[in-house]
Amino acid sequence: MSTASTSFIDRKTVVDWLGIAPFMIFALMFLVVPTLYLVTGAFFTPDGDFTFKNIADLFTPSILSAYWISIKVSVASSIGGALIGFFLAWAIVLGGLPSWIRSGLLTFSGVASNFAGVPLAFSFLATLGRTGLVTVLLRDWFGFNLYGTGFNILSFFGLTITYMFFQIPLMVLILTPALDGMKKEWREASEILGASTWQYWRMVALPILWPSLMGTTLLLFANAFGAIATAYALTGSSLNIVPILLYAQIRGDVLHNANLGYALALGMIVITGISNILYILLRMRAERWQK
Fold first, then answer.
1. In whole angstroms, what is the distance from residue 151 CA to residue 130 CA?
2. 77 occurs within a structural domain
3. What's the CA gap between 76 and 225, in Å, rounded?
4. What is the rounded radius of gyration, in angstroms, for the C-alpha atoms of the chain?
5. Contact residues for 146 (Cβ-Cβ < 8 A; gap 6+)
6. Number of domains into which the chain is organized
7. CB 211 within 8 A of CB 283
8. Residue 287 CB: number of other CB atoms within 10 A?
9. CATH number for the domain including 201?
10. Helices 242-251 and 258-290 sit at what angle, rounded to 10 degrees?
């Protein structure tokens, strides 16, 4: 290879690396370094002494209860979002609906999956709060007292359905390509062999889609487990979930202990990390079928 060609390749490599440098710097500054800071801080006291007390405190009843509530909310919203999102994705891909419905739903899903935080909390309070639009309409037009049934938007169930607003669209966006990857030849072959629609879905389609379904559900779980802005804006401190407890420890409440907050964050990192690793593994398995 000539010197000129080698020089050209070297310059091209430098340009390629410069292209991804902003992303790498951003990830290093706002993801890697803060994560390492949290992990190391979990093993030190405020005075800088090494300790395992912060990790041991994670097993106190109040903190275990916060983790358990967070897990329940994440599981409920991820399963609910996965089920409803699956049927929506199935309807627009395999249900024979007009193409404009598909494009409209995918556009809405792209927006709704990123609609969270204070605006989402306010929207649900204005809709399903004690004086919300739907609550008032049900009471005045149909004589149905929603809050008389025990429903409360500031409760576990209220937070779950609020989370599902962005969980369902995310499921639609991720699962639609998997359904698009289902080959028509598989359906035709099953019909030639005399299989019914139920047998095709039970023995062919669902086993192929199962890694995608499970992987996306795990991703939804991690997405809900780490959410704080929506929960805090909606429920304040009335619902003891881990992100709110972590926020209270780090921002300087009466029981302020930043290092315990770092340990809480470490626990969240471990749980969401396991979920994301399982998602990646299942996603890789699903992609083998789509090739």
1. 10
2. yes
3. 11
4. 24
5. 128, 134, 135, 138, 139
6. 1
7. yes
8. 14
9. 1.10.3720.10
10. 140
pLDDT at 75: 94
Q: Are 173 and 216 in contact (CB under 8 A)?
A: no
| Residue numbers of the domain that contains 133 | 61-290
Give the residue among 191, 185, 220 at the shortest CA–CA distance from 74: 220
- Of the pLDDT bands very low, low, confident and very high (cuts 50, 70, 90), residue 189 is confident
Distance between CA atoms of residues 151 and 78, nearest Å? 20
* Residue 169 belongs to some domain of the structure: yes
DSSP 204: I
Is 234 a domain residue?
Answer: yes
Q: Please, which residues have CB within 8 angstroms of residue 256's CB and are 6 or more apart in sequence?
A: 249, 250
Residue 7 has pLDDT above 80, yes or no: no
Query: Between the ranges 1-10, 133-142, 255-264, where is the mean pLDDT highest?
Result: 133-142
- Position 165 pLDDT exceeds 90: yes
CA 233 to mean position of chain CA atoms: 18
Greatest mean pLDDT among 68-77, 149-158, 183-192 lies in 68-77
Question: Do residues 202 and 265 lie in contact, with contact meaning Cβ atoms separated by under 8 Å?
Answer: no
Residue 33 belongs to some domain of the structure: no
User: What is the pTM (predicted TM-score) of this model?
Assistant: 0.84
Q: What is the dihedral of CA 80, 83, 86, 91, to 10 degrees?
A: -110
Please answer whether residues 233 and 123 qualify as being in contact, where contact means their C-beta atoms are separated by less than 8 angstroms: no
- Whether the CB-CB separation of 224 and 167 falls below 8 Å is answered with yes
Q: What was the pLDDT predicted at 32? A: 85
pLDDT digits (tens, 9 = 90+) for 100-148: 888 899 999 998 888 888 888 889 989 998 888 899 999 889 889 888 8
